[in-house]
């Protein structure tokens, strides 16, 4: 899966320690703000402007998927441009191309995402991961942490959109943060901790935690439509990108096979509810998702064969509106 070491690409994977998958922290943490002042981290000088910023994403990646969802929800397609990598993660990392659903790098003319990282820092060391939020004017990476990018998209560009829905409202922030913390550690990243584990103990620890949390979320959703009550928030979208991939990939490929999402009455209806919100289906590409995971992770699936199933109907009616 490779990484950059002092600006040079090395085709090695250093993410497993004592059988446990360990996700390396992201590096770029500047913020776009309405007036260009510094955000919670980083430096100032990144004011919200139409046409100035560009997203580099993969349709397969759940972290990048979050940013595409917020770009869609906030109607920022004409404000922030995007480049999409091909599905397969090869020996050079994420690459741009012309296969269906993908695109070329129309901003910097590069062939790989690693080259974008070295444009920002010629001596960068670390993974060249998606998403990347790029500043065309300063020609650098603003941020490569999805949880921070979606908060910028949620509020920094209000001058350029008529959408006023706030997915991180002040009154709910403490509860949103609490749920995000649990879901990230045990579900979003938990499926990776199970799938990339190289010891039985590490795998079982991660997989059992995945289902312990899913069971708790199932119970929570018997009482309310969304994770924090009657209002949809970023916590729902952060969970959604894992759930929409679960039965097609994580259940089999990552051995998270105690239950499928379709086996949960409330979670399955909840996923369909979110999927059927205007514009969201356009951000979900199961072809890229399946070809990426099954074809790229040869340490998990040595043959690279992509399964033809399962058949999943996210458009089937749901019953979540009973809480409205």
Structure overview:
- The chain has 2 domains: 3-160, Glutaredoxin (3-Layer(aba) Sandwich); 170-323, Glutathione S-transferase Yfyf (Class Pi), Chain A, domain 2 (Up-down Bundle), CATH 1.20.1050.10.
- A hairpin with a 4-residue loop joins strand 7 (132-135) and strand 8.
- The radius of gyration is 19 Å and the shape is globular.
- The protein is built from 9 helices and 8 strands.
- With 324 residues, it is an alpha+beta fold.
- The protein has helices at 62-73, 113-120, 146-155, 173-188, 190-195, 200-220, 234-250, 265-275, 286-296, and strands spanning 3-5, 8-10, 16-17, 20-21, 53-57, 81-84, 132-135, 140-143.
- The chain has a 4-stranded mixed β-sheet, sandwiched between helices. It has a two-stranded antiparallel sheet with strand order 1-2.
Please specify the SSE layout and strand pairing.
Layout: E1 3-5, E2 8-10, E3 16-17, E4 20-21, E5 53-57, H1 62-73, E6 81-84, H2 113-120, E7 132-135, E8 140-143, H3 146-155, H4 173-188, H5 190-195, H6 200-220, H7 234-250, H8 265-275, H9 286-296
Parallel strand pairs: 5-6
Antiparallel strand pairs: 1-2, 3-4, 5-7, 7-8
Helix pairs in contact: 1-3, 1-7, 4-6, 4-7, 7-8
